[in-house]
Amino acid sequence: MSRRLNPLFVLLCLAVFVLAAAVSAFFQQSKPETEKREFVGFDAEAVNFGAWGIGDRASGTIEFTNNSDVPLTFVNVVTSCGCLTQDFEGRVVLPNTTERLAVSLDLSDTHAGDVIRKPLYVTVSGDGIPSSSHTVTISADVVAQLSFPKVIVLNTAQDSNDSEGLLTVRNMKLSEQRFATVEVSPVVPGCTITELKNIHSSESSKEKNSERTFRVSFDGLSSPRRFAAVLIKYLSLNKSEVREYVFVEMRSRAWVTPSSFVVTDADQRIGREYRFRVAAANGATVNVMQVNGDDAELFEVRIDGHTIELKCIQEVSGSFKIQALSLAITVSLEDSESNIVIPLRGHIIKKPAAR
Known about the structure:
- The protein is mainly beta and about 350 residues long.
- It has three domains: about 100 residues, Immunoglobulins (Immunoglobulin-like), CATH 2.60.40.10; about 110 residues, Immunoglobulins (Immunoglobulin-like, Sandwich), CATH 2.60.40.10; about 100 residues, Sandwich (Immunoglobulin-like).
- Helix content is about 10%, strand content about 50%.
- A five-stranded mixed β-sheet has the order 2-9-8-4-6, with no helix packed on it.
- Strand 8 and strand 9 form a beta hairpin.
């Protein structure tokens, strides 16, 4: 004998099934929406643009993903410094898309080996979605494209204004064609630059070991000092023009302190004494051998090792206001086989005769 199902029981089961299906559909619809909200922002918190040369403008792209259902607008973009530039403020990112955004980083005033990191702050907004802030850090590695000394040290005797030295520029990153166009030019009067070698490369690495050598000559530079003398100009890896300077430091092998003196009428009358000290580069021992010159007869000279004492012993006649003195000091150095002559500059000042 068969039993019939209770209609009330059937309706109850059907209601439970419909309710379960509705709940399942609700959670399946709301869960992706939650996930979409979690994927609004930059795909990476930090982006490195790779290796670039000194003075380059490192460029690249960053990716911003909008997995929401509404368009998002970059309402505010703040860079941490003027070296970081962008042009996407005000741009709209459509729903369920990823936008590639161009950013560049100026590497002026950097040095080889630096890693430049700059944050970028972005605020986005859309209809029905609260504004949100996002940060991405842009970085770039600074590498040397050329290798050369930043300072050339020239040793010269004080009796000569002519000096010269060698400057070698080595290629590190540039192509041979671009390396051949590197310009090396003087930036001070009296400086002459002559290339001594053509480009040559080692067999193991033609691009990274090629070098060019220049003779840097000076005429008319006297006192020891340091100054920018050579400009090296070239096109970098991203074809931007780079200008770098080489300093020259003039050093005399020996010098006298003070390097000049003044004699007045009164000094001549009272027989004033003047004291000088001679020193040498690298702490070398120096001995004064003699003091001579056209006006040496005006003074009594006493020498004690590296010191000199001059005493006026006669007056200079004639009607003049200022007259230059011609004196020279001959010294010997322990590390040199030849003597060095150092000029000693002096002037005599006379008061005009009363009328």
